Amino acid sequence: MIRHTKTLLAGVAAAAFMVTGALAGDLRINFDDLNPGPKKGFEDMVEMFKAENPDINVIVNINDREAHKTAIRNFLTADAPDITSWYPGNRMAPFVDAGLFEPVDDVWAENGFNEDLAAIKPTMSRDGKIWGVPYSYYQWGIYYRKDIFDLLKIEEPTTWAELMASCKVMNDNGVKPFTIGTKFLWTAAGVFDYINLRTNGYDVHNDLTAGKIKYTDPRIKQTFINWKQMIDECGFVDNHASMSWQDALAPFANGDAAMYVMGNFAVSGMKDAGLTNDQIDYFQFPEITEGLPRAEEAPADAFFIPTNAKNKEDAKKFLAFVGRADVQTKLNETIGQLPVNSKAKVGDDKFIQEGFATVSTAAGLAQFYDRDAPAAMAKAGMEGFQKFMLDPSTLDEVLAELDRVQEEVYK
Amino acid sequence: MPASEFQATQQTSWMSRNKLAITPWVFLIPALIFFAIYVVIPIFQSITLSFYEWNGLYDADGNSTATWVGLENYKKLWTDPKFWVSLKNNVLWLFLFMLAVPLGLFIALFLNQTVPGMRFYKSMFFFPFVISQVVVGLIFGWFYNPDFGVVGSLWKLAFCEETTNILGNVTFKCSRTPPDILSSSEYATYGIIAAGLWPQIAYCMILYLTGLNNVAADQIEAGRLDGAKGWKMLWYVVLPQLRPATFIAVVVTVIGALRSFDMIAIMTQGGPYGSTNVLSYYMFETAISEYGERYGYGSSIATVLFIIMLFFISYFLWRMYQDEKGGR
């Protein structure tokens, strides 16, 4: 009997040892992009991390972006990895509020991220703490057909008046100035954000998405009045409400439309549509209110540590690694985006370089309307933008409805 | 020994005495268990959830983050214009979807003849019902597309001329912009209902075709001898015999209209700006979709939809019960 107990105990001890032994070195990471570029960039980064930390056994789980958005709601509670990718701004708010993410202020302090990643710090913070480490972002702006601009002898406009003037030239020559596809709504939010950032500035953008300013506020109304001017004097392609952003590339590629307010990811779509680097170019969204500090739209992707992570020590090592300048340089070269670390170098792609020049000199970085505003507000807001774009005369109706939703969402 | 033997006979005799009462339950149990787990319990769970405000998250220890708000969600529904738009669209669906019943009947009457190759025609008419709703939605979405769809192409023939743009590529200049059915808040719902009718008509048609097989030939004969033909024959002799088929057709059409979801999800995602929402899709949007995560509010929408459905379903069940009583 005694002997039996002894072997049993020994067995339990051995098993326990094996379990803890395996756990200490395991680092489970959930990543959310299966597209070839980002996937390769991430995998290369993991290999680099493994080479530097041979004692850590990294287990990677890469999921589709949309599937990840659903899965994260379960796995943070039920079966948390040690690291997960997610988005800063209001998108992380529900998880932070439910106590599902671990604050990582110490990682920032120990690695000098407070200086190197300063631009993005406000959007990574909530309740006075920092919740993750960003690894990449990309610029938004106006992508245009350089060949059409050359043909019509139009220069890149830098002010609102210049933009309107160039639109007139395009319209006179039968070119629709802007293409857009608002079927999935968010593209309209990009246009709204830019007009708002240029009309009222970064603080108004933040106050609006934080629910501190009403939509019927005269400043926001001015944004819409400028937008109406853009619709009237420039104009967007017809039928934009039945097109996705990819569908909207067709008139752009065909030369029917000359400009596209978009994120940098659109460049690869344009190239897939047969356009070359000589035919497309980029300029910053022109100035509207003179002298206003220029803020840009630059949505970031980041890594977070779930509260239920089992191996937080190695997870923090990984976050420190991800924020490093050389790692971000290499990663973003592969995925074709901008490194967040200000000491990192950017790739030699012309859009990346222009983007870096745009974003690194910006006075403020907005995430995006649907990441800065809470989900319910973002949905209603973007539907309002679409309605306004289809029929600008509904403006007052749209703004009143948005005020009603705002009151309900931010109470 | 004799005692246990006695018990055994007792047992078998109890089983055999109650065999008729027990057997149905034994066969029903597995189905009942699954029905309870997947249907009945979730109904009560979502009704409970409709009194909470919840973003669907549990905290790190696995406790729900929901807070009790009482009837707050229902009060919000009352003042939510999107809810009323959805409800209005549900009513539209209900009425217009009913067209499937008479249309199905007429196609069935038309196909109920003996012509060589009739089976082929019948199966062609039945075809849309076999395709998944998602595919039907996708096809109609393309069909309505103002740029490359059938609607757009016909429009181009009538109102547009081919020119070249500034870069020398082929493009179209239209004297009138083509109708963008799925992006117009006025027409989009009708466009989706029309797409939904296509398979639904096929469904009603097949119900009527089987019903027509059972129409008594002697009664038709008798009617004909009495001088009935055409509409009168249909109305007084054929239709009364098709009553069971009509009943089922109405039931499946009502339920089909109320749970219209896949078409909307595929064709417009409730858009433009929420004007094609119906309750089921609005529920999905508020509770489960990317911009939703308001499970309590979504549940209150689901509860309203459930009550509406309950109204119809209890009526149908009551009718069926009455018929069965009459039949005995």
Principal-axes shape call of chain A: globular
Main β sheet profile of chain B: 2 strands, antiparallel
Low-confidence residue ranges of chain A: 5-23
Largest sheet of chain A at a glance?
5 strands, mixed
Report the average pLDDT across residues of chain A: 88
The shape of chain B, in one word, is: flat
Structural category of chain B is mainly alpha
Which assembly state applies to the chains in this document? heterodimer
Q: Strands across the major sheet of chain A, in which order?
A: 2-1-3-12-6
Q: Largest interface here, residues on each chain?
A: A-B, 47 and 39 residues
Features:
heterodimer; A: 411 residues; alpha/beta; four-stranded mixed sheet; B: 328 residues; two-stranded antiparallel sheet; 4% strand; flat
Task: Describe the structure in your own words.
The complex is a heterodimer of chains A (411) and B (328). Chain A is built from 20 helices and 13 strands. Chain A has helices at residues 2-25, 36-52, 65-78, 93-97, 105-110, 113-116, 121-124, 146-151, 160-172, 186-200, 202-209, 218-234, 249-254, 266-272, 312-323, 325-335, 350-360, 369-372, 375-390, 395-409, and strands spanning 26-31, 57-62, 83-86, 125-126, 129-130, 132-137, 140-145, 176-179, 257-263, 280-283, 295-297, 300-304, 364-366. Chain A is globular. The relative contact order of chain A is 0.17. Residues 5-23 of chain A have low confidence and may be disordered. Chain B has 328 residues and is mainly α. Chain B is built from 14 helices and four strands. Chain B has helices at 2-49, 72-79, 81-97, 100-111, 118-130, 133-144, 150-159, 188-213, 217-225, 230-241, 243-258, 262-267, 279-287, 295-327; strands spanning 52-53, 67-68, 160-164, 170-174. In chain B, the strands form two sheets. In chain B, strands 1-2 form a two-stranded antiparallel sheet. In chain B, strands 3-4 form a two-stranded antiparallel ribbon. In chain B, strand 3 (160-164) and strand 4 (170-174) form a beta hairpin. In chain B, helix 3 runs antiparallel to helix 11 (243-258), helix 6 crosses helix 8 and helix 13 packs antiparallel against helix 14 (295-327). Chain B is flat.
